[in-house]
Amino acid sequence: MSMFSAERREISLAMMCSSRSVACRIFSFALFLIASSVWAGKIYGHEVAGQRSDGSIGQKMSSVPDVAQRNAASTDFVDEPDKEAEYAIRWFPSKGGPANATAVAKLFAIAASKDEDKLVVRYYVVKPQAGAPVGATAILRSRDKANNKKFQLMFKYRASTPFDDKSKLCPLKAGNAGEDLTDKGEWDVSWVASDRMESAYSYSCSLKSDHPIAIQPAFEARPRSPVIPMRRVRYELDGEEISVEEWSLPDGRFAIEVSRMGKRTHASLKDFVHTVSEPIVGAGALLIPESMTKLATRSSP
């Protein structure tokens, strides 16, 4: 009912009451006030739901439980409980939300962390690899632990469709004693706006060692970012491990990512939204649509 139709109805009722009691007039005026309130509420609700943050950095969730139900129910994928998934949410504390890992722990009433690492991260551009999946993006990243001298070199493919054959996708080779080569495939899901998530399939392989790992000359690797400091703290939340990463990006911005491993199921997706995303967004965080890889490389000087 519009405000104007409500007004016309009130006038009509008032005319009908002209020869009747004062009580009738009061009743008709009350109906008008109720109709007007409903109309105003609809308009106000529409304005709030459509409200965006300044710029294109992120967007507040309007109503996280509704968002979770709407997205999880409409997301076009089949449950695969045997497949791994990583769910993540990112924000700039300068625009709202928990200021650091300690504030995240306080928000979830977590008393102590499981472990903490200080790392340095760098991304590289590499030449196209033989046998690379069509349409896949290649990522080469070094990530070294500054506090206990552990080193990692990771190569990853990310694509919009699953990888059919993973047996020949890894170009890394363990060239020195003590280098451990592992690989994994997963479904990466990020909440990027109030009513939207983005997902991608990824395959990665990693070399880990107690000594620095040389990048193979065949990659023809060139730095895509400067060295980026990152602090990672792990906590236990409702029996599951969450990882909180604090990123000091090259352009001076400070970003936080909270992630949790799960399964490729609607139930796991909804649980992440309700358990992790909802409290963080409720605390004022504005969601960042870019992946951390894009943030780290696009914001380079």
Could you walk me through the main structural features you see in this protein, from its secondary elements to its overall organization?
This protein has 301 residues and is α+β, with helices and mostly antiparallel strands. The chain has two domains: 3-49; 64-298, Hypothetical Protein Pfu-838710-001 (Beta Barrel), CATH 2.40.320.10. Helix content is 28%, strand content 34%. It has six helices and ten strands, in the order αααβαβββββββββαα. A nine-stranded mixed β-barrel has the order 1-5-6-4-3-2-8-9-10. Strand 5 and strand 6 form a beta hairpin. Helix 1 (3-16) runs antiparallel to helix 2 (22-49) and helix 3 packs antiparallel against helix 5. Residues 1-20 and 24-74 have low confidence and may be disordered.
Q: Can you give keywords for this protein?
A:
301 residues, alpha+beta, Hypothetical Protein Pfu-838710-001, 9-stranded mixed beta barrel, 10 strands, 28% helix, disordered N terminus
Major sheet strand order: 1-5-6-4-3-2-8-9-10
Strand proportion: 25-35%
Q: What is the succession of H and E elements?
A: HHHEHEEEEEEEEEHH
- Write down the overall mean pLDDT: 79
Count of DSSP E strands?
10
CATH topology term of the largest domain = Hypothetical Protein Pfu-838710-001
Largest sheet: 9 strands, mixed, barrel
Low-confidence stretches: 1-20, 24-74
Helix content: 25-40%
The figure for the number of domains is 2
Give the C-alpha Rg. Answer: 26 Å
First and last CA, distance? 55 Å
CATH homologous group name of the largest domain: Hypothetical Protein Pfu-838710-001
Give me the number of helical elements: 6
What class would the helix/strand composition place it in? alpha+beta
CATH architecture of the largest domain: Beta Barrel
The CATH C-level name of the largest domain is: Mainly Beta
How would you sum up the global shape? globular
